[in-house]
Amino acid sequence: MSGWQPDVLGDGYEQRTLELGPDPDGEGEVAAVVVRRTPREADEVRGAVLYVHGFTDYFFQTDLADFFAAHGLAFLAVDLRKSGRARREGQTAHYTTDLARHDEELDAALAVVVEEHPGLPVVVLAHSTGGLITPLWLDRRRRRLGDVGPVAGLVLNSPWFDLQGTDLQRGPVTQALRLLSKVRPLQELTAGLSIYGPSLHTSGTGEWDFDPAMKPLEGCPVTWGWLNAVRRGHARLHRGLDVGVPSLVLRSRRSDFSSAYSETSDRADIVLDVEHMSRWAGCLGGEVEVAVLDDARHDVFLSLPTPRAAAYDRVGRWLREHGLGEGSFTG
After folding, report:
1. How far apart are CA 195 and CA 223, in angstroms?
2. Deepest in the core among 22, 162, 194, 212, taking most CB within 10 A?
3. Which UniProt keywords apply (predicted)?
4. For residues 65, 237, 108 and 222, what is the CA-based torsion angle, rounded to 10 degrees?
5. How far apart are CA 21 and CA 23, in angstroms?
6. For residue 131, what are the contacts with CB-CB under 8 A and spacing of at least 6?
């Protein structure tokens, strides 16, 4: 396929821009960007992975790509509209008033995967908000087309399945969002990720060298319009989906919402409530497994070495159990 250009990740990675046309939310022309780990001579490709990032995020995890390559799966990722590589000047980061609009770039990105690797099974891997967006997309795709082929499996890394807080707190917040999203959709709230970003990045206490321009350490601002779209997505999930394929949900054993950094910040999910991930996992439909990982971070693949290795090991076993990948990886 033509159109591949060098990527910001350097040698071994290329990107392709998918133009999507005018933004329904009025922020100019929108696009998505597909990134691929370029094939190596030693690769034995028996399938492929399509990776979808979360909020305040973009694809940069080359170890993740190497892991799947070691299991015989070509790796491609998509930076969604207004996110990471795809965000254009004047656009509000990650902003949409309807998560279903992401179906367009997910369908287009999947088409790229199929053209690059025709006839091979595809595993969709998604993190956090991406872990909400992708099940909704697969459920709509199944209802529209009758099945979700060539997608053969779904792996969700700490998916955002519900709003933090108690049931009593969530109800009034959701009602308020319905009104505020109509009258002030672009009004910003604080992101509340001031501990998480520095705990990951090399400029703070972490080991990961990502671009803070695309993944701000303080988090991207949350808007009323976007958060209302997320709550509508939660409501649809809670009514029950059928993603059409086996699913694996990865989560930390515990959450910690302390406002100050401590050693616990590196050994817990400090962004989302992990109990929600287990509570609502059954709403994906079909065969669902929840893997609880001791000491894992919100992005389990950015955890400290021991829980990170456990996360990779569990995914590797799940792939083998479902005939979707073989091999080993040390990273």
Report:
1. 20
2. 162
3. Hydrolase
4. -80
5. 6
6. 54, 156, 157, 158, 159, 160, 161
Task: Supply 159's token pair.
Answer: 């998916």
Q: What is the pLDDT of residues 8-30, one digit of tens each?
A: 999 999 999 999 999 999 999 99
Q: Is 305 exposed, middle or buried (0-12, 13-18, 19+ CB in 10 A)?
A: exposed
CATH among 3.40.50.300, 3.40.50.2000, 3.40.50.1820, 3.20.20.70 for 5-321: 3.40.50.1820
In 3-state terms, what secondary structure has residue 287?
Answer: coil
Which of these, 52, 182, 187, 156, lies nearest to 107 by C-alpha position? 52
The full set of domain ranges for the chain reads 5-321
Residue from 302, 64, 78 nearest 198 by CA = 302
- Is the backbone peptide bond immediately before 150 cis, with ω within 30 degrees of 0? yes
Amino acid at position 4, single letter: W
- Cα-based distances in Å from 94 to 21, 66, 195, 322: 16, 27, 20, 33
Q: Coil, strand, or helix at residue 241?
A: coil
H or E stretch including 153? strand 151-157
User: How is residue 91 annotated by DSSP?
Assistant: P
Strand order across the beta sheet in which 5-6 lies: 5-6, 13-22, 29-37, 73-79, 47-52, 122-127, 151-157, 247-252, 288-293
Tens of pLDDT, residue by residue over 141-167, are 999 999 999 999 999 999 999 998 767
- The secondary structure of 37-68 as a DSSP string is EPPPTT---SEEEEEE--TT-----HHHHHHH
- Cα separation of 133 and 135, whole Å? 6
3-class secondary-structure state, position 289: strand
3-state secondary structure 252-268: ECCECCCCCCCHHHHCC
